[in-house]
Amino acid sequence: MGERIVSVAISSFGIIASLPAPARHGDVLRKLHDFNPLVIGGESQGFLTSAGRYVNRRDAAVLALAAGQVDKLISAPDLYSEDLW
What we know:
Layout: E1 5-12, E2 15-20, H1 25-35, E3 44-49, E4 54-56, H2 57-66, H3 81-84
């Protein structure tokens, strides 16, 4: 089995925060805000792969389509958690 999307992730303040499926990006942002109220939004919203890589929404879309995780995208060319779960 090849590389797949496994969770949502936010890149912010030089760290990558993620939560497992079926979490959404908003769930991660709420947890970050609980940790630090100054967090308004992630610098970048993306996903973690089964190889442990952080990928942005566009690269995640390419990967998820190639892996057969999705047949179509809600808001192409980007991947959203709603596309997956």
